[in-house]
């Protein structure tokens, strides 16, 4: 599997002896950071840059900037475009309200074609008969990081409004919807779930973004769905993902800092969606509950067990969980 980055940075860090905790907005990062886009090209990012307020105003006023691409077992490779407030686009599609629906949101500098989307799409459709809706929010995602981060809540609310429209015209219940997002996309689906009043069956954040989110009320949180899960794979000092608990159940594979088989932070970060995709078809990764973050760091968690990932809509759990994985897919 290609390890293409849908990248964002983290402003939280693991302390050497105490595990993940909150820090200030920039955390251990300098103002300027180099990191790659979805094609692996490095970009210099100014975490204190003035955002593009005109673009932020546009995405706030116009949720139709988002594209919604439907894939089902009837059209595994050729997506069908669903349009908010256009019932004909739904009626002409293969959307089936009797099936569960998985909504997938990419991260920064990415789009519907970036690896996370076909990987999760294929795994989900191989596992069960579902609707997979890929959210392409490139209108904002392709802007500078400071602008994209600030616009994520508005874009997420737009996704929530689309799902309310979908529910109204098809009857698809919110309790059969699972919202999944990576990096900035994790906070995006959190806001989408919030727009639904926390009624989505599940919200899953895959290595949620850190910079500009640590003290941000718009970040992913446990009330965004009936059950909210986060998978942290790159939360160490200088890592690309947030290293602190944000959900009902927070999983820290291999301690949540670095992943086996990875030499770079980028690989660690991407591992979150790779692990999740694998669990959709295998449901084989199981964590032990931890009493505190020190147990995560020292790999001494001995509490109750909970499967990480998967698409079980009535899944429940809470607390911190540690598990160990293999070096390569299916881990």
From TrEMBL:
Keyword annotations from UniProtKB, A to Z: Signal
GO cellular component: extracellular space
Single Gene Ontology BP annotation: lipid catabolic process
Example GO molecular function: lipase activity
Signal peptide span: 1-18
Domain of life: Eukaryota
Keyword Signal set for record: yes
Keyword Nuclease on entry: no
Lipase domain residues: 63-311
One Pfam family, short name: Lipase
Family affiliation: Belongs to the AB hydrolase superfamily. Lipase family.
Protein name as it appears in the record: Lipase domain-containing protein
Native species: Manduca sexta (Tobacco hawkmoth)
Lineage of the organism: Eukaryota, Metazoa, Ecdysozoa, Arthropoda, Hexapoda
